[in-house]
Structure formats: C-alpha cells, structure tokens
Design brief:
Layout (H helix, E strand, L loop, with lengths): L4 E2 L1 H8 L3 H9 L6 E2 L5 E4 H10 L6 H4 L3 E6 L3 H12 L5 E6 L2 H10 L4 E5 L7 H10 L7 E6 L7 H6 L4 E4 L4 H12 L12
Parallel strand pairs: 4-5, 4-6, 6-7, 7-8
Antiparallel strand pairs: 1-3, 2-3
Helix pairs in contact: 1-2, 6-7
C-alpha cells in the first residue's frame, strides 16, 4: 500500500501553526520532505511521525492510524447505513463517518478533511453538486477524491459532474462491490478479504 503523505497545510493543522512555520522546519532540516514535480512539498507519514515524536508534539489520530478516512453524505439513512457497513468490513483500511446534509458535511470537512467523499448529488437545501463545487474551489480540499450517487434523475448531465472534478458516479440501487472497489482504487489501497461484522 503506498504510504500516506501530508502537505504543509496538513501539518500546520496538526501542529496548530501557520504553514510558513512548517516550510521553515523543512528548510532547516528538522522535517524531511520531498518536492513534487509541481513544486509542492510533501512529507511521508514515517518522516512526520519521527518529527512529531522528536519534538514531543501530540500525534493526531489520523496520522497514528494508517486508515483512510471516508465521509458518507446522504439524507437517506438506509443508504448511509449500507455504505458504512460495506466499508467497515475492512476496518484496517477505512474509518467511516456519516453526515446527512450538505451543510453538515462542509462543517465536518472544515474541521478535518476526509480522504474520500461519497455524496448523494440530490439533497434538500444544499445538494451534492454545490458541496463538490465548494470543495473543488478551495486549495485545501481541491484534491479530495469524490464519488457521487443518486437515485433520482439528475438536473444536469453526468459530463458536468466530471467537469466539476467528480471521480465517479453511481446510480441507486447501488452496486456496493463496485463502489467499494472504486473507492479503494481512488485511495490506492489494496482490498483484503472482507472481515464480517455484526453491524
């Protein structure tokens, strides 16, 4: 499984400092990093853990655990339940959280961005497309992987979803195996045989 990496903004959030402080730590050699072809600094989970332990900074749960964070957003409780159960069959790989509205999702993501968002595109008040537009327009969440689902006829074309940066679209009733497989592919994790749960 490819090792998780973190941006200077991620690390700034973990350490409650400005991103410029993280850049300074990198430049001073305190925090090992590498530069992407686009000129952005990235820090591996291993090097971040070394840094946090050396300077006695509390290790956030999302760094301590190699699990990928998945946020499921749907006003249909039955849909969130079956998706949550599907991903929770792989507890070593995924940590699942649930929201039931677009507004609630944005507040949740503002506190801690997931690795993958699975969202119903047709919801009252703030629909999934609006949520995707907000997330893709913000630098901190523009790279977020997104799967959208819907059981209703879309008020726009699926091509518009792709243009909005959505990674996959599935119609209800969902092919759960396909959603799970695509989610794992987007997160670059290898699925092991499922662990049955009593949920």
């Amino acid at each position: 499984m490819p090792e998780r990496t973190y941006t200077t903004h991620d690390i700034a959030r973990f350490c409650d400092v400005y991103p410029s402080s993280v850049v300074r730590w990198i430049n001073e050699g305190k925090l090992k990093s590498y530069e992407t072809p686009g000129g952005h600094q990235r820090v591996s989970r291993e090097n971040l853990l070394v840094f946090l332990k050396e300077f006695r900074i509390p290790i956030p749960a999302e760094v301590e655990s190699p699990q990928k964070r998945i946020l499921i957003v749907d006003d249909d409780v039955d849909t969130t339940r079956i998706l949550e159960r599907t991903f929770n069959r792989h507890p070593d790989l995924f940590r699942v959280e649930v929201c039931h509205s677009g507004v609630e999702a944005l507040i949740h993501i503002g506190r801690e961005a997931p690795d993958l968002l699975i969202i119903d595109i047709v919801m009252p008040k703030m629909d999934g497309f609006q949520v995707c537009h907000v997330l893709k327009s913000e630098p901190q969440t523009s790279a977020l992987k997104i799967i959208v689902v819907s059981g209703k006829k879309l008020p726009f074309s699926e091509k518009k979803l792709a243009e909005a940066g959505v990674d996959a679209f599935y119609r209800k009733p969902l092919d759960l195996a396909a959603v799970l497989s695509r989610g794992a592919e987007l997160l670059r994790v290898a699925l092991a045989p499922a662990v049955e749960t009593n949920r």
